[in-house]
Design a protein that fits this description.
- This protein has 2 domains: 169 residues, Rossmann fold (3-Layer(aba) Sandwich); 182 residues, Dehydroquinate synthase-like - alpha domain (Dehydroquinate synthase-like, alpha domain, Up-down Bundle).
- Helix 6 packs antiparallel against helix 7, helix 10 crosses helix 11 and helix 11 crosses helix 14.
- It is α/β, with parallel strands linked by helices.
- The protein is 46% helix and 18% strand.
- It has 14 helices and 12 strands.
- The N and C termini lie far apart (58 Å).
- A 7-stranded mixed beta sheet has the order 1-2-9-6-5-3-4, sandwiched between helices. It has a 3-stranded antiparallel beta sheet with strand order 10-11-12.
- 47% of the residues are buried.
- It binds nicotinamide-adenine-dinucleotide and zinc ion.
- Nicotinamide-adenine-dinucleotide binds next to helix 2, helix 4, helix 5, helix 6 and helix 11.
């Protein structure tokens, strides 16, 4: 026991899949207590991480859990982790580590590690428990929350995946300090997304406290992570499996974004891709009369001020359309877009004809 009290968590109420999300600075020093208080009857714990992240934070955490049988498995860093081949190798390592139905997979990393670890935890022995420790801003505000898991297929991103809720999520905002600036900026793209789709106060905060946020100010990061997690938790509670249209608004910017990631072979990272994707969706919304030009400009200026790209790169737009059609958001070849209707206002899901998509891409 560390003797420190734990902060009140954000609860995700999903019946027997209910769990807590803890947000705070230096929470990782209390990982053992957090597991004790939230997860019963654990036989062994295995950390899944990539070298750069494990080197920074892994060993201390492994020592902290020494009362359990522990292990670590290192996977490739970044998007390269999210492949069928790596997932298969990882499952083999679970067998080698003798993981059983009471074992705990602990994902220590950004969205890439989290999505891979979550996917394999969901299918190993038909599903074992998972702790998400998202270490990027993007992971803390988005990918670590909500139970979506995935690996990529050569033909498209996240095409293979499951829903598997974690048993516990720990967002230690202190670890954001060690992120490369490019990864901090990428996370802020998802933060802009939350602001546009449901809370203008997030946009105001990003506009007014830019300098401090870019320096990863701990108070502001705590506030930002909390706001985003609470918004996402509510949407997940209403529509856990993304089938009722409520959770879909989180895909704002992602229709084009996912294609840009795939087409650029992940040279453009997830946050950068959705930054461009949000602007394309906003242009479509503006062309259709749903969004005021000023609200498009406000987003573009904000994204630029956080060093995020807003221009569509030179690509074959027809190839991009073909990839969009394979994306999960296209049903029976009809391409649906989440279109913003204002800043902090509920967006709408609309089918968009190909010529309008091409127009927005070329503008
Ligand atoms: N499951 C979901 O709901 C969901 C939601 C959004 C995004 N995603 C997925 O998340 C992925 C992107 O995640 P990401 O942006 O976290 O990128 P990432 O996981 O690829 O990490 C980016 C880089 O940050 C480094 N890093 C991570 N934590 C660090 C730390 N604390 N200090 C220093 N370096 C650190 C990693 O080593 C890596 O090089 C995409 O594959 C995307 O599809 C999933
Ligand atoms: Zn995203």
């Amino acid at each position: 026991m560390t003797g420190k009290s734990l902060p009140a968590p954000v609860k995700v109420n999903l019946g027997e899949r209910s769990h807590s999300i803890y947000i705070g600075e230096n929470l990782l020093t209390q990982l053992s207590t957090l597991i004790d208080e939230n997860i019963q009857d654990v036989s062994s714990c295995v950390f899944i991480s990539s070298s750069p992240i494990y080197d920074l934070y892994g060993e201390n955490l492994l020592d902290q859990l020494s009362k359990y049988k522990t292990g670590k498995i290192i996977v490739p860093d970044g998007e390269a982790a999210k492949s069928w081949k790596i997932a298969e190798q990882l499952l083999g390592q679970y067998i080698d580590h003798d993981l059983d139905r009471k074992s705990l997979i602990i994902a220590l990393g950004g969205g890439s590690v989290g999505d891979l670890a979550g996917f394999t935890a969901s299918i190993y022995l038909r599903g074992i428990r998972l702790v998400q420790i998202p270490t990027t801003l993007l992971g803390q505000v988005d990918s670590g929350i909500g139970g979506k898991t995935a690996v990529n297929h050569l033909k498209g991103k996240n095409l293979i995946g499951t829903f598997h809720q974690p048993s516990l999520v720990v967002c230690d905002t202190a670890v954001i300090k060690s992120l490369k600036t490019r990864d901090l900026h990428a996370g802020l793209a998802e933060v802009v997304k939350y602001g546009v789709i449901s809370d203008e106060s997030i946009i105001n905060l990003l506009e007014n406290k830019r300098k401090k946020i870019l320096k990863a100010d701990k108070f502001l990061l705590n506030e930002i992570v909390k706001k985003c997690v609470m918004l996402k938790a509510k949407l997940v509670e209403k529509d856990e499996n993304d089938s009722k249209g409520k959770r879909a608004i989180l895909n704002y910017g992602h229709t084009i974004g996912h294609c840009l990631e795939t087409l650029s072979n992940h040279e453009i990272n997830h946050g950068e891709a959705i930054s461009i994707g949000m602007i394309v969706a906003s242009k479509i919304a503006e062309n259709l009369g749903y969004l005021k030009y000023n609200d498009l400009e406000r987003q573009r200026n904000l994204l630029k001020s956080y060093y995020l790209p807003t221009e569509t790169p030179k690509i074959d737009n027809h190839q991009l359309l073909n990839i969009i059609k394979r994306d999960k958001k296209a049903v029976s070849n009809i391409i649906n877009f989440i279109l913003p209707t204002g800043i902090g206002k509920s967006p709408i899901l609309k089918p968009v004809p190909e010529n309008l998509i091409l127009k927005a891409l070329e503008e």
